[in-house]
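User: Can you help me understand a structure? I only have the sequence.
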Amino acid sequence: MSEKLRISFESVLSAAANAPLVRIDREEFLRKQLSGRVSPEMVDMAVERGPIAAGVPQDIIEKLAKGSIDFETTKVTAISAAAGLPGGAAIAATIPADLAQFYAHVLRIAQKLAYLYGWDELFGENGMDDGTEQTLTLFIGVMSGVQMANAALNKVAANAAPKIGAKIAAKPLTKGAIYPIVKKVAGYLGVRMTKDVFGKGVSKIIPGIGAATSGLLTLATFKLMAKRLRKYLSEVAPIVVSGEDVSEPIIIEPDDVITVNEDEGEINA
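Assistant: Let's start by predicting it. Here is the structure, written out as tokens:
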């Protein structure tokens, strides 16, 4: 595969993160979702500590999570490939426009689900800094079925809960074994994107690349990714609420192979 045809996951993530309306304001989202469903006092506590720590019933959280998935799934299948992307044709020249648009909605649902299950703001105060990029890479890895991403994100979860009085800012994962895993996951996702796009012969019709790739980014793909993340976040929620790292140590070797969960069926949990 030619290097000129290789898609960089980091480039797609950057384009998606900079699209309008991608960033979800955590407090605004939680207040809108919870108001009228729980007491005002519980809404305030959910904003401060997270819905689970505030005692919001699990059935309400699950209903809101599924509703958010349905909403974003509908949006991603209806919006035009190039709509809302900064740079317009300049971005489309290097990144398939609908690929960036697809991942813009992936980032939106990732934030919504994260906030419902107790995580703090995913974006830093200045947007997508290094810490934000690394954390979002692991989120997308989980959504894509990359098992190594699950293990790494477990380690991040212990520090994911809102801290009262603390400034919101994601910390770069430069220490320990997590950062090398982030790089491996990003590399895998880039290779898979390249294969998905150019494996269909899109390289032969660059002017029509948006239309050609739209068939790859199906409703089923998005919904499965979102359901994977919802399932993972519900399982890891106790770590987020307690703030205790109870996950297994991560050991990574240079020749580690990334395993992928290629489940195609419904995720009902």
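Now, to help you interpret it: Confidence is low (pLDDT under 50) at residues 80-93, 165-169, 200-213, 251-255. The chain is about 55% helix and 0% strand. Let me know which part you'd like to focus on.
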